[in-house]
Design a protein that fits this description.
The chain is α/β, with parallel strands linked by helices. The protein has helices at about 5-10, 35-40, 60-70, 85-95, 110-120, 130-145, 155-160, 165-175, 190-200, 215-220, 240-250, 260-275, 285-290, 320-325, 335-344; strands spanning about 30-35, 45-50, 75-80, 100-105, 125-130, 150, 180-185, 205-210, 255-260, 305-310. It folds into two domains: about 5-55 and about 155-325, Rossmann fold (3-Layer(aba) Sandwich), CATH 3.40.50; about 60-155, Rossmann fold. The protein binds ligand AN7.
Length: about 350
């Protein structure tokens, strides 16, 4: 039987010998070649389809490790602030561990699929009159006041679990890619990839992309009222700011902004040209290389292999898909009418 990543890479993870394995068989996600995108950007581009994780996003990699460790320590409850995916993942892994879960999300600002996930798993879902950054301040405080485990990416075990995605890339490609394009919100994931690459003594150029209305790392200061259609990365004050900037600088990469229009165009383009449906935030990585080009580093060849990290599944956010795609064709139950509808 294939092993879940928490078992496969266990010797690199800071679990204690007695910790239980709380797993939904996350990881081992598809690395899908993108021929049309490759042609457009002039390099061999691969898509790391993290939406194929059990709850539909990369968060599961970190959650399996954070919840296993929390359970090993005897914790009975987990809490997080979330733009949606962390909430969905925490809710599922809490069930798996026999723990209770509470999630605080910005009211009206998370995709409907993520809300459905958190609710169906039985988490207590609190819609805050505030944004993600406000919610993160509150859950940090709550976890200090109460015996409840904080499972945001400020939790070190989250980063440790997420670094396994870099291991998988190296193991599957036979070497690290030349460059990695990745969406950036709270900046945990880019921090995790960099750690994974470094532990394998590799250093791809890291190319991070934020939404233009929520681009604190690009403008160099926190954004008080972040706004973007890519609700997952609607974050104005990233917790892993310094580590992420260190990763961009050390890898000789950079962080840049993409507009909502560029994000939605890349999202739609990827679905209709490569057959891969990711959520809007994930498409920031593709929008980035399409609009900014491949990273150019002095003294280095142009990258030949590039991985775009597609962090979450398109089904998470059907509203955005329906708003972007062409309409349904209504049709009477009659063969000639159907014929016209089908063939145009
Ligand atoms: C699809 O769920 O922050 O830079 O609370 O859901 O590690 O924050 C989600 C983040 C990219 C950004 N793509 O990753 C949350 C949350 C998707 C995401 C990011 C998120 P980080």
């Amino acid at each position: 039987m294939p092993q879940p990543m928490i078992e496969r890479y266990r010797d690199t993870l800071p679990l204690e010998p007695g910790d239980p394995v709380v797993s939904l068989n996350e990881g081992s996600t598809p690395l899908v070649e993108a021929p049309v995108l490759s042609e457009r950007v002039g390099a061999r581009v691969w898509l790391k389809v993290e939406g194929a994780n059990p709850t539909g996003s990369f968060k599961d990699r970190g959650m399996t490790v954070a919840v296993s460790r929390a359970k090993g320590r005897g914790a009975e409850a987990v809490i997080c602030a979330s733009t949606g995916n962390t909430a969905a993942s925490a809710a599922a892994y809490a069930v798996r561990a026999g723990m209770t879960g509470a999630v605080i999300v910005p009211e009206g600002k998370i995709a409907i699929g993520k809300l459905a996930q958190a609710l169906i798993h039985g988490a207590r879902v609190i819609a805050l009159e505030g944004n993600f950054d406000d919610a993160l301040v509150l859950v940090r405080e709550l976890s200090e006041r109460h015996p409840i485990e904080l499972v945001n990416s400020v939790n070190p075990y989250r980063i440790e679990g997420q670094k396994t995605a870099a291991f998988e890339l190296i193991d599957e490609l036979g070497e690290a890619p030349d460059a990695l394009a990745i969406p950036v919100g709270n900046a945990g994931n880019v921090t995790a990839y960099w750690r994974g690459f470094q532990e394998r003594e590799t250093a791809p150029v890291l190319y991070g992309f934020q939404a233009a209305g929520a681009a604190p790392l690009v403008i160099g200061e926190p954004v008080a009222n972040p706004e973007t259609v890519a609700s997952a990365i609607r974050i104005g004050s990233p917790a892993r700011w310094e580590e992420a900037m260190n990763a961009f600088n050390t890898s000789r990469g950079r962080v840049a902004a993409v507009t909502d229009e560029q994000i939605l165009d890349a999202y739609h383009w990827l679905a209709s040209n490569e057959g891969v449906f990711c959520e809007p935030a994930s498409a920031a990585s593709v929008a980035g290389i399409l609009n900014h080009g491949l990273p150019v580093v002095e003294g280095m060849e142009t990258p030949e292999t590039v991985v775009c990290v597609l962090t979450g599944h398109g089904l998470k956010d059907p509203d955005t898909a329906l708003g972007k795609a062409p309409p349904v064709i209504s049709c009477a139950n009659e063969i000639t009418v159907v014929e016209r509808a089908v063939f145009g």
